[in-house]
Amino acid sequence: MSAPNPSHLDPRNLFMAAAGAVLGVVLTPIVAPVFLGIVGFGAAGPIAGTAAAAIQAGIGNVAAGSLFATAQSVAMGGSIPTVITAIGAGVGAAIGAGAGDADDPPENEENADNEDNEDNADNADDGAAE
After folding, report:
1. Can you give the residue ranges of every domain in the chain?
2. Burial of 93 per CB tally in 10 Å (0-12, 13-18, 19+)
3. Which of 4, 30, 68, 101 has the smallest number of Cβ neighbours within 10 A?
């Protein structure tokens, strides 16, 4: 008799996590600039009246290499830093693993329902006997 395979080690879940990671790496260069555009980072600089403009106003002089400078660089067509791609892979892996586990029914759910019904029936019998 073999030990049960924990769901996080299920080959299907591992496959879904790997597929999600690959998809995250592929989609990061597409999604990151779109998201930055939504926040207000434009090809010519922060767009007036947006969150990016408000952040820049709060920062004042933007230091080279800062998160704000990197975001603006990506919005202007610069390369996406490796750490951002790695974050995209991690998010994709988490979503993939969750999707792989989503359609697995909880173990013994049917038995738990039957036990609850039996307990309720026992309690009803106890009440009738008094």
Report:
1. 10-129
2. buried
3. 4
